[in-house]
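Researcher: Good morning. I'm working through a list of sequences from a screen, and I'd like to move beyond sequence-only analysis. For each chain I'm collecting a predicted structure so we can compare shapes side by side. This is the next one on the list. No need for commentary yet; just the structure.
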Amino acid sequence: MALQCGIVGLPNVGKSTLFNCLSNARAQAANFPFCTIEPNVGVITVPDERLTKLVEIDNPKRVVPTTIEIVDIAGLVKGASKGEGLGNKFLANIRNTNAIIHVLRCFENENITHVDGSVDPVRDKGIIDTELQLKDLETIENRIGKCQKQATAGDKLAKRQYDILCQYKEALEQGLSARTVELTPEERKCVADLNLLTDKPVLYVCNVDEASAVSGNAHTEAVRAAIASEHAEMLIVAASAEADIAELETYEERQMFLQDMGLEESGVSRLIKAAYRLLDLQTFFTTGADESRAWTFRRGMKAPETAGIIHTDFERGFIRAEVIKYADYVELGSERACREVGKIGIEGKEYIVEDGDIMHFLFNV
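Model: Good morning. Structure tokens for this chain:
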């Protein structure tokens, strides 16, 4: 579906190391600011134990997991909103993404220079937040005058937009992000074209040393307290250890490494799944002897829309959908067995597809 998460942060916080772990790309991760100028884009496979189970059941000829795109965006610095350090280019790269993964340095290492001289993830978060908020405030102020004139002339839509713009302006001037402004779905549609940077959903990733990978440290606790009012998810990841794990050749070796660290699942795997949730994405499946496949859809989509993800003809000529719940399929072991005991639901155009549904679409064009 070509939805992207952008990885942002100050220089030298571990963004490119993390990106390389995610995508197996090899960005030039030199120890100086602006080590990444053009954003690297990685198409990342989303780990899903459900697809693995379906493959075990159906033994298909082909397996296709679902994916998301991760963009490694160069490090921002103070003044980016005014164009400092190629700031305009970097902010434009963020604007083109659908959600933000904000990496914060939560480790001490005298061999890796911090752009501001000391490790303080809450301060670093504030620097990034301020630059994005200033850019959003500029966007709002550019729009608000025009909107006010139209509203005064009696344009009802402009009046609604002006009221919302004023709410955004008040929040941003108080140092709050646009996402803290509570709007109805209809209100959001009115100003969707603003594409505000601080209105994008955000996931905070605390990059720690290996010793802190399980429980975190004082830095991660400070971040947790700082984001308490944002209702945002926070992950603790040791990027350097993840890089070591990525170099191991076998699944067994990687699992042993994780066990030695006291982890059940790699930070990369947890991050990918969290990014998938951040984009408000879910998965439905098609499965059989020829292919087991995971398909990405936006939460809340109806059956015809999800059919269109497979092929536009499926949506255009949609008749009905046959739906098997994942748990039923795993318990009974085949589509045939589910059909025999009445565990296949026949759903029409208004059916809202649920995460994990196994779908078969009937259509006619």
